[in-house]
Amino acid sequence: MKPSPSPASSPSPSPAPSSSPSLTARELATQPGSWRRAAEAAASAPGLPRPDERVAVTGCGTSWFMAQAYAALREASGQGETDAFPASEFPVSRTYDRLVVITRSGTTTEVLDLIDEVRERWEVLALTADPATPVMRAADDVAVLDWADEESVVQTRFATTALAFLRAGLERDGRLPAGVRTVTEAADEAERALAEALPAAALAAEQWTFLGAGWAYGLAQEAALKMREAAGAWTEAYPAMEYRHGPVAISAPGRVTWAFGPLPDGLADDVAKAGGTLVGGTTVRGATVGGTTVGGGADDAEDPMASLVRAQRLAVAVAEARGLNPDAPRNLTRSVILTP
Length: 340
Hints:
The protein has helices spanning 23-28, 31-42, 62-76, 109-118, 135-138, 157-172, 183-195, 200-204, 216-231, 267-274, 304-321; strands at residues 2-4, 55-59, 82-86, 98-102, 123-128, 141-144, 207-212, 235-239, 255-260, 277-280, 283-284, 287-288. By secondary structure, it is α/β, with parallel strands linked by helices.
């Protein structure tokens, strides 16, 4: 087992200013610095998937959505077949060269059980925030992203930092899909996402639907999860092109459709006809949020990870507007540990 050390030369990220008193808001504001540090760590980290390996990625909850995003991004980059599954539904009869596990706590029962079942057959890389947890002994290689650890129950910083680390590993091997920015560029966009005001229509909405295509779909699902966890909100997520196949029926005045990445042709018109509000990348219909026009191409749309930062901020703001504490979400704990 070869843990990846934190780069000694990298300072701890400093929080961006936040008007929210919540711990969750303060932690999510540190993400740009955490991502840059992850990119530095990935440059020499052991255990990252190599080109042409057949790879599976797993996690639970938020970590599963990060696994989905990385799997789609790696496969689109041409670096090898990559699948993502929740740890509880993993098809262990399949054959892979490497399993990548994302687990903030390193204690989640389903994750540890899965590693125990497959470690004799496949190489296992674990990404965790805590160097003193059982996953350190279970995996072959461990990337300890301890600078991205959180006190919050609701994950923000660790999850996106894990994705930034894996994304930077794809950069290290020299291949990224067309239109996908570097981690450093994504961090720059995230800083703008932290500084700009949230659209008033999104703050006042009664319902939110998040859309994404390709690797952005996993991030859209994570945005919806953040709204549910922090604010108990009515929210959904779909692949962007699937929105027309039924879910568009939910669009109406007072409801928001938020697209991660470029918008499919005609979708803006569909939402407008239903009377809904459309947020596309960095644009809300009728009011520019970040200078991009609705329906802009891939080169114009905001990086999906930066869009997720905006959605995290929205979740905190909606929670606080409803009198809820985003640091103490209902029915949730920091890690799910099952009794034998």
